[in-house]
Amino acid sequence: MTQYFLAVNTGSSTTKLGAFDVDGPEAQPILRARLRHGSADSEIRVWDAEGRSLPAPPPVRSGRRGDAVVDVLTWLEGKLETPARAVGHRVVHGGPHFREPVILTPEIGRALRALAPLAPLHQLPALDLAAKIGKARPNLPQALAFDTAFHHGHDPVVDRLGLPRSYEAHGLRRFGFHGLSYEYLAGRLRQLDPSVARGRVVAAHLGSGASLCALLDGRSVDTTMGATPLDGLLMATRCGSIDPGVILYLQQTLGLDGARLSDLLYEHSGLLGVSGLSGDMRVLLQSDAAPARDAVELFVFRVAREAAALAGTLGGLDGVIFTAGIGENCPEVRAAICERLAWLGVQLDSAANRRGDTQISTPGSGVAVWVLPTDEEQMIALHTRQAIALVESAGQPFAERLA
Questions:
Q1: Is 207 annotated as a binding residue?
Q2: Confidence (pTM)
Q3: What is the span of the domain harbouring residue 88?
Q4: pLDDT tens, 113-166?
Q5: Residue 132 and residue 140 in contact, taking contact as beta carbons nearer than 8 Å
Q6: Does the residue 156 lie in any domain?
Q7: Catalytic residue among 147, 159, 222, 318
Q8: Cα(202)–Cα(371) distance, rounded to whole angstroms?
Q9: Which of 7, 70, 209, 375 could hold 380 in an S-S bridge, CB 3.0 to 4.6 Å?
Q10: Per-residue model confidence (pLDDT) at position 68
């Protein structure tokens, strides 16, 4: 059996897994799985490389994410008759220092845990899961790939906050997130349309978490998320950009402490807060309730407004990419966003949009519009291979790295 890496993409309520063959120049999928976590149960689905569901997924322990992922790893090793070469994890926040994938060590783990206040929904779950795997497989190398890494290299003015400069010593600046998704999309667009990929593109990762990225010749030059994944667009349960004075009012006048503020802004705002119904765009689109329509309209408005702002950073617009749950599966939302961007030259092919074609702009559109499924797990696998190769080239045994 060929060597393979297990890519682990830890979300707030789901964990996506992918086993990838890494013997060739690209990471080729072998199996994929999705774990959905509840208070008492862990539901799992598994697909083969062609996307066909496997009729007998592995049994997993209920409730605890780490136990369930270890169960999947054990099942996978038995099914493929060989242990994994390494496990790679998506880590949302790499801070100012982690710009390349790395092998997890205790020291690196402690440094990344210190960033948890800047990404409370994602940072500790990913690191805790890695710790669980490390306990079950102490000699198995684990690599970390960072969502923030793709956005390093911005012009400093893009990432600077309007705070006293002394706070920069605390690592407070804009970082940007969803970098693994944007890195994949940039590469995919180079395959589909090299001329547009060399130009000015706004990529829209629209899911439960949502952001936009300005790509210039495939590089990130600006993005909507800032120091934390709370910033930018309206999201499923996150508020996005908000007047800081509102935060002060909630704290000083309405008496919300830090814990209640965090819960409000991360878990009870966004589409859920505005609609009072759900943070799921599918539910809102099916509802006739006025607050649900208000939430969808606000989401569309904010995406279009921020896309236009990123076009300003780019100095024009040659392409738009939609991806993730809403971007890939909600033609009504794509159409409404494109209608608001018509002044920039976007012309939507309505039939192609309804079908969910790969390209949904008209032949005469001044801006090419694409719907591209993202693949963060593939990027995790590729970054894991990069991290493994760096250590092997240095000739340092993994046992020393993991100690």
A1: yes
A2: 0.92
A3: 4-146+376-402
A4: 999 999 998 999 999 999 999 999 999 999 999 999 999 999 999 999 999 999
A5: no
A6: no
A7: 147
A8: 12
A9: 7
A10: 83
